[in-house]
Amino acid sequence: MPTYPAPGVYVIEVPSGSQPIAGVGTSTPGFIGIVPDPIDILNPDYDATQPTDSTTTPPTNPRFISFAPISAGEVKLCTNFSEFKKFFGDFSTNSDQRILAHSVYGFFNNGGTRCYVARVTSDAEISGILEKFEAIDEIALVAAPGRTDASVRSAIVTHCKINTGDRFAILDSDETVEDGSGNLDLTLLDPSNNSNVLPDNSDYAAFYFPWIQVFDPVTKAQNPSSDGRIYVPPSGYMAGVYARVDTNRGVHKAPANETVFGALGLKYQISRSQQGGLNPQGVNCIRELNGNIRIWGARTIGGDSNGEWKYINVRRLFLFLRESIDEGTQFVVFEPNDPNLWAKITRNVSAFLTNVWRDGALFGNSPQEAFYVKCDEETNPPEVRDAGQVITEIGVAVIKPAEFVIFRISQWAGSQ
Fold this sequence. Notes:
- By secondary structure, this protein is of the alpha/beta class.
- It has eleven helices and 15 strands.
- Strands 4-5-1-6-7-8-12-13 form an eight-stranded mixed sheet, sandwiched between helices.
- Strand 12 and strand 13 (292-295) form a beta hairpin.
- The longest helix is centred in the C-terminal third of the chain and has 20 residues, at 339-358.
- It is globular and about 95 Å long.
- The chain starts with 28 loop residues before the first strand and ends in a 20-residue tail after the last strand.
């Protein structure tokens, strides 16, 4: 209590008690790729109008030059593709490096703005990178483009669901899903098949099929008579679409029915009937529709078996809400656990959820229909307070995607 030794007017600043909760980022991925050392990359100084002499040391005007990427195990923030090239090299003759480069390029080309990238030399080193990712709070998505080993997939999902609890994994299919005769075999994507083509069920991950076709400047340079097209895993491009949808619509919008920029074709063409057997399992198909390559699925791995968590956007919305409230209410720790604190928590969380509702993420014609926040004597009885805990109960009405659009059409004679 302040003292006032002399008569007069005293103006005192009083805290308003309002602690606005800011929404956390949802679209910054962490990419892990296999990059050997050194690699051959396109020479940025190559002059197509001048001859190349490989007999000299060093060769004059070479088409490819050797590049030494940063040390394996380092994690670098990249805000554009030029920064990626500075650390990890350009499109390369090495197939693993080529996949990583195209994945990061596809991320930025589809709307991504920030990503963390790490280089390893083998799948066994990926777990070490995931430990480093844990310390980077900004990361919200995790992908290892083209890595389909069961242990790698399991490590990434465990990192997202158990170790951090606030991230979402994007997984790739194998490039080739065929029988012994070279024909597309969708039974390999059945969960009962022991082929490991389809990962284990998880509502913290999404699985995309098939690989997409893109233009590769290295392939064109090596074989000028070719069209320069290659197949690459879709996870990097999908992360870019996630970022684009999050920016334009919000994390509550399903990242589906979206054009994949830079995709020129698909490894396999999937029909509606074929997808009908894959969608319930959580296999998100990429299809060519009306001349565009589009994402035509929005389910977590396992699909129907994941119950209320079968949609990607529902899981990611809850990750966003949980992380935002977690970070935005740290001021509560060690405060007196009394009705004033309960009212402050209720007020700040309600204000945050009202903004989320206004953005269209919650279902209801009013905030009262869209969510509730309860923090009072009922949720905080004496035994809870004695344990040093304050418990707040929150309920939200989420919006599910219109996955199946049905029109009922019939003949009508018209009014007389």
